[in-house]
Every structure is written in structure tokens, then in C-alpha cells.
Amino acid sequence: MTRLAKGATIRRDAGLYGFERALERQGLHPVAGVDEAGRGACAGPLVAAAVVLDRSIKGLADSKLLTEAQREVCFELIMKRAVDVSVVIIPAGECDRMGLHRANIAALRRALARLTVRPGYVLTDGFPVDGLGVPGLAVWKGDRVAASISAASVIAKVTRDRLMVRLHEDFPAYDFATHKGYCTSGHQELLQEHGPCAEHRMSYVNVRAAMENR
Q: H or E element: which one contains 52?
């Protein structure tokens, strides 16, 4: 990953679109933002999204700061107004096989590779992703300060939540529709009671312990 180009400084009051505007002034566009959802879950897939924006979207913010209803509204606006959107889904078993961090990096790379619009610059949330083929920058708390990363976080989060609601229909004993596979106390109680299902990540300590206790 690289630093921002010389002269492409971001003012603190630049707002959510400050990174994209600064990069565009340097000719580094279009800008793609990438983010993932489900990294901290012990069940269900890891979902990564890449988004290229060319206009502001009202109400856009880090998906974790939005209500479910607000996320759904932003999701529809992004899908309607974004230049390009791609989504990659890594099943629980593949997360176990690859290891979570490797699966995370692979998902972000795949999401970028699936964009039909080739980005001139890539913004990632938190940690760098090498091997993208274009310059990029890892942005601390990027989903809160960079619009394209915020958009990617919303797409990834809503997509994954919808998948978990569907999985609830197949595995109702685990209440996936409520906790979305994250390690809540309620999920842990059900995991201990029923043992893991095919959608649990067997590499996680709490999941292995629940299986061994069966």
C-alpha cells in the first residue's frame, strides 16, 4: 500500500468525502472502497464488498453506526447510485480452511477484482491489502471517515445480515436472525445446548469447546 500522493492532504473538516475529493484532484480516480462484515462472528460467512462512488449519498455512515432501517435505505441508494458494486461471500468452511485473516484478505482482493470499473486508487479499512495492482491506502477507522469505505461496509453488512436471516430458516435452533452469528451470550447458550451446525466456524475456540462437550 502507498501513502496519499504529495499535496493530497485531508483537512479534518473535509467531511466523509474528503479522501475521494483529494484523490480526484490528484488524478487518482475512480476511487474504490472495500470493507468486510462477519470477521468477528463464529458462524456464517465472511462477506466483502467493493464500491466505487461518483456522487454523495445522503445519510451514508459506518454501517455499525446506523440502525437496521437506515442501513437498508443506504443499501438501496448505494446500489442505485454507485458507479460499481461487487460482493464476495466466503463460506464458514473456507474461513476455517484458509484462516480468518487470509480469508479476509482474499475476500477483499476478490471483491476488487470483480469490479467492472478498474479503480485508480483503493481505500481499505484498518489494515493494508497488498497485491491489488493499483495504489492504495489503509485508513484507520476508514468506514467512519471515507465515503467509499462506508458504502462498502453498508453493502457487506446488509448482504451478510440477509444471508443470516435465510440461514435462520435452515437452522432455527440457533436464532441466527437475531445475533447474525456473532458471539453473543444468547448465541453461546444455544451453541452449548445444541452443539455446532454446518454454518459454525470450527476453528473458533468456543465452537470447538461446544462440539467437545456434546
A: strand 46-52
Nearest-angstrom CA–CA distance, 62 and 79: 16
- Give Dmax (Cα) for the chain: 60
> pLDDT by residue (tens digit) across 108-143?
999 999 999 999 999 999 888 888 888 999 999 999
Q: How much of the chain is helix, strand and coil, in % rounded to 5?
A: 45, 15, 40
* Cell 465515503, residue located: 147
Alpha-carbon distance values, 51 to 78, 83, 134, 194 (Å): 8, 8, 15, 39
How many whole angstroms separate alpha carbon 198 and alpha carbon 9?
Answer: 48
Contact 95, 47 (CB under 8 A): no
pLDDT digits (tens, 9 = 90+) for 92-110: 999 999 999 999 999 999 9
What domains are there in the chain, each with its CATH number? 18-168 (3.30.420.10)
pTM over 0.70: yes
